[in-house]
Design brief:
Blueprint: H1 10-16, E1 21-22, H2 33-39, E2 46-48, E3 54-56, E4 59-60, E5 65-66, H3 74-78, E6 81-85, E7 91-96, H4 100-105, H5 109-123, H6 125-132, E8 146-154
Antiparallel strand pairs: 1-3, 2-3, 4-5, 6-7, 7-8
The structure holds iron/sulfur cluster (SF4) (2 copies).
């Protein structure tokens, strides 16, 4: 699994409970190839709750904990940041404005420091090589939900991330 520091405490997320439930199947976390092998599944499934909302099959609804937390997909580790698919397979790094942390913290020093950490993370050749084969995994998102923090963070065949 790709290790990534989180920008948020578990306590803050458990208070929010905004993650791990989805309006449609298409927003379930996508798995990278090595995650499929590690989890021995080819995709994440959903369950429908009493309100018709879809929840991730790995969400423990009693305490809102992830049952595979140590092995959770990279997409879950990265959130509330997103790798956003653009034309010509260019990938931008964006913060998701649906997360209240992003809205409240975006101008703060900690947020900016974390964006710097992510830029360094995506410049690591090991990370870049691993993600190069996974470009088909990344979504596009409604533009109004995005705060792009780094354009062209990944490009197919490129040796270095955008600066
Ligand atoms: S929406 Fe943001 S604050 Fe809420 S649980 Fe998800 S990552 Fe945490
Ligand atoms: S894998 Fe875990 S962190 Fe990711 S959506 Fe499912 S329950 Fe949430």
């Amino acid at each position: 699994m790709l290790e990534l520091k989180s920008c948020l405490s578990s306590a803050a997320c458990l208070e929010c409970k905004g993650c791990c439930c989805f309006a449609s199947e298409s927003w379930l976390p996508q798995l990278l190839e090595h995650e499929k092998k590690a989890l021995k599944i080819i995709r994440v499934h959903s369950r429908e709750d009493d309100n018709g909302m879809l929840t991730c099959e790995f969400l423990n609804k009693d305490d809102h904990h992830c049952r595979i937390y140590e092995q959770r997909p990279f997409e879950c580790r990265l959130y509330p940041f997103l790798l956003v698919s653009r034309r010509d397979k260019i990938i931008d790094l964006a913060a998701h404005l649906a997360c209240p942390f992003v809205v409240s913290a975006a101008e703060g020093m900690l947020f900016k420091a974390y964006v710097g950490y992510l830029r360094n993370f995506f410049n690591d050749p090991i990370v870049r090589n691993m993600l190069k084969a996974e470009y088909g995994t990344f979504h596009s998102y409604p533009e109004e939900e995005l705060m792009v923090v780094q354009s062209n963070i990944l490009q197919p065949g490129a040796g270095e991330a955008g600066q």
